[in-house]
Amino acid sequence: MKDKIVNGMQIFARAIIVPILFLPIVGIVLALSSILSNPTIFGQGSFLINIGKFIASGLWPILGNLSIIFCIGISMGMAKEKKAEAALVGLFSFLVFLGANNEWLTLTGKLVKYKVSSDLYGTGQTLILGFQVIDMGVFLGMILGVVVALVHNKYCNKEFPGAFAVYGNTKFVFIVLLPILLGSAIVLSYVWPVIALGIKALTTFINVSGPIGIFLYGFLNRFLIPTGLHHLIWTPFSYSNIGGELAVNGKTYYGAYNIFLAQLSDPSIKVFDPSAKYLQYGMVKIFGLVGAALAFYRTAKKENKVTLKALLIPAVATSVLVGITEPLEFTFLFVAPFLWVIHSVLDGIFEVAAVLLGVRTYGAGGIIDFLAYNLPAGIGRTRWPIYVAVGLVELPVYYFVFKFVIEKFNLKTPGREDNEVKLYTKKDYRDKKSKDEKQTNESGKDNLASIIVEALGGKGNIETVDNCFSRLRVKITDLDKLDEPALKTTGASGVIKNGNNVQVIYGPKVNSVRNKVDKYLASQ
Questions:
Q1: Predicted confidence band at 181 (pLDDT cuts at 50, 70, 90)?
Q2: CA 471 from chain center: how many Å?
Q3: Fold category of 426-523 in CATH
Q4: PTS EIIB type-1 domain: from which residue to which, for each copy (predicted)?
Q5: Cα–Cα distances in angstroms (integers) from residue 123 to residues 105, 205, 240, 272, 461, in the given order
Q6: Which of 151, 168, 140, 175 is nearest to 68 (CA)?
Q7: CB within 8 A of 99, min separation 6: which ones?
Q8: What distance lies between CA 479 and its chain's CA centroid?
Q9: What sign has the CA pseudo-torsion 453, 500, 328, 230?
Q10: pLDDT score for 178
Q11: Contact 126/65 with Cβ under 8 angstroms?
C-alpha cells in the first residue's frame, strides 16, 4: 500500500510540473511589463504605459485561469499514451463540469446574486469562463485532471465491433467520464464547502504558528527534493488559497505567486502582502549552496581539488543563475545523507529569518528571476536588500557548518572518497557529447539517447517519459533492468528510484536530453 501511495504521488508530482514549466515565462514578462506601465518611471501619459498594460492584459488570462490549465496539463501529463487526445478530453470535461455545476446551483437556489464579480469574494462561489460555480481554485483543475487521466489510461484503447467502432478508444473515455462529471458537479456542491473549511484551518494553522510554520514549509520543501515530491509542498502555496488570498483592483487572487504578480501592477500598494513568505525558498540556491561548495573544495584531498573544481563551478553557476540545485546537491546527497538533513534545517532557518525581518520578495528562483521580479517592484515594496543581506550571512554559515560537520564526522563528500571515484566534469560531458555527435553522423543514430534507453531497460521497459526543470522522469516496468552506472556516463548527476518511477538528474540540459530520447524511441 505504501509503495502504491508513493507511486501515485510520484506520478501526480510529475504531471503537475507540466503546466508549471511555462509559468515562469509568464511571470517574468509580467514583471517586465510592470516597468513599462509604471508612471513614476516614464511619467503620466507616456505611450510606454499603454504598451506595458497591453502586454500584461495578454498574459493575465493565463494566471487567471490556472484551473483549466492544470486540468489539461495533468490530463496530458498523467496519460501513458495518446496524450494529445487526453488533453482534449480534459478540456471537454472541464467545460462539462462548469455547465453542470452552474445549473445545479441554479436549480437548488444556491446561486449567489452579485452585481460585479468582486461581490463573490468570500461567498464560496466564483466566475470561471463566464460560469458561476463553486470556488475550488486550482484544485478543481487538479481533481478533474487526475480523474480524466485515470479513466483515459484504463479505456483509451477500448474498441467495439461493427457500427459501434466509432465510439471506441478515446471517445469511449469521454462517454465513461460524462456520468462521473455530472455526478461530481452535484456532489462537490455539498462536499467542497466542508473541504474548504479544512483548507482554511490548515492555512490558519500555518499562519498562526509563525516561525514554526515557515520553518516546516522550508524544511520539507528542501528535504523532499530527493523524492521529487517537493512540488507537492510549494505548488499549492504558490497557486491556491492555501498560500493566501488578496483582492487587488477589485479582483481576488489566490496563492503567493499570483498575489505577488498582481501587486506588481498596482503602484498604490506600498508594501507587498505577507503571503510572500512562501516565496523565499530560493535564497539557498543563490547563497547557501555557494558556501557548501566552498566547504567541499576546502575539505577535499589535495590531489582531487582540480577535478572537483571542474565539477563544482558549473554546478554552482547553475544554482545561482537559474535556481536549479540538483547538479550540486546530488554531489553529496547519497554519500552524506546526514549532511542533507543539516542542509534542509539550515534552509528552513534562513527562510524564517528573512520573513521575520519583513522580506516580501519573489525569492523562489535564481538571481536572474530575483532581479527580473524584484527590481521592477522596488525596494520599498519588497525590501529586497534585506533578502540579500540575510543571504550574505547564510553563505558563510553554510561554509563553516558544512566544513565542521564534514571534518568532524569524516564524511565522504566529493573529493574525500577513499577510493578513486570518477567525477564527470563539464569537460567530460562535452567530450562525450562530441563523441556521440560524431557517432550520430556516422551511424545516423543518437548514441546518447540509445545509451539512456538501454540503461533504462530498453524501449519495451519504458512506459512513460516526462521531465521537469532538471530531471528526466521515467516510469519503467522492471526496475531490475535499470543500469545506474550507464546512466551516469550520460552526464547524469544522480538517479532516484521510487517504486517503478525513475528520476535521472540532468540539470538545465534535461529538455535537450528528453528530446533526444523521444526521437530515439519514436524511431525504434
A1: very high
A2: 11
A3: Gyrase A; domain 2 (3.30.1360)
A4: 446-524
A5: 13, 22, 16, 25, 50
A6: 140
A7: 131
A8: 26
A9: positive
A10: 97
A11: no
Strands 125-128 and 131-134: antiparallel
Q: Compute the radius of gyration of the chain from its Cα atoms.
A: 25
- Long-range own/partner contacts, residues 149-152 (CB < 8 A, 24 or more apart): 149/15, 149/74, 149/75, 149/77, 149/78, 149/79, 149/86, 149/90, 150/78, 151/176, 151/177, 151/180, 152/75, 152/79, 152/82, 152/85, 152/86, 152/89
Burial class of 55 by CB neighbour count within 10 A (0 to 12, 13 to 18, 19+): middle
Contacts by 225-229, CB closer than 8 A, 24 or more apart = 225/325, 225/326, 225/329, 226/333, 226/340, 226/496, 227/6, 227/10, 227/496, 227/498, 228/10, 228/13, 228/14, 228/468, 228/471, 228/473, 228/496, 228/498, 228/501, 228/503, 229/9, 229/10, 229/13
Active site residue 468: yes
pLDDT tens sequence across 300-359:
999 888 888 888 898 899 899 989 888 888 878 877 888 999 999 999 999 999 999 999
The number of residues in the chain equals 524
C-alpha cell at 229: 515530491
Q: Which of 333, 303, 338 is nearest to 415 (CA)?
A: 303
Give dist(CA 154, CA 132) in Å, integer: 32
Looking at 265-390, which runs of residues are DSSP E strands?
none
User: Which amino acid would we find at residue 339?
Assistant: L
Q: Give dist(CA 522, CA 524) in Å, integer.
A: 6
Q: What gap in Å lies between CA 123 and CA 100, rounded to an integer?
A: 19
**Can you tell me whether residue 395 is helix, strand or coil?**
helix
**How distant, in Å, are the alpha carbons of 47, 286, 476 from that of 230?**
43, 19, 22
User: With 70 as the cut, is the pLDDT of residue 80 above it?
Assistant: yes
Angle at CA 212, nearest 5°, toward 206 and 218? 85
Grid coordinates representing 299?
575539505
Q: What is the pTM of this model?
A: 0.75
Q: d(Cα 182, Cα 171) in Å, to the nearest integer?
A: 17
Kindly list the domain boundaries of the chain, sorted by start residue. 81-135+143-191, 276-408, 426-523
DSSP state of 411: -
Q: Which helix (H) or strand (E) holds 182?
A: helix 170-208
Which residues are bridge partners to 362 per DSSP?
A: none
Catalytic residue among 468, 476, 487, 496: 468
- Give the DSSP per-residue string, 505-523: E-GGGHHHHHHHHHHHHHH
SS3 271: coil
148 Cβ partners below 8 Å, 6+ apart?
71, 74, 75, 86, 89, 90, 93, 173, 177
Q: Grid coordinates representing 338?
A: 546526514
Q: What's the grid cell of residue 87?
A: 488533453
CB 184 within 8 A of CB 116: no
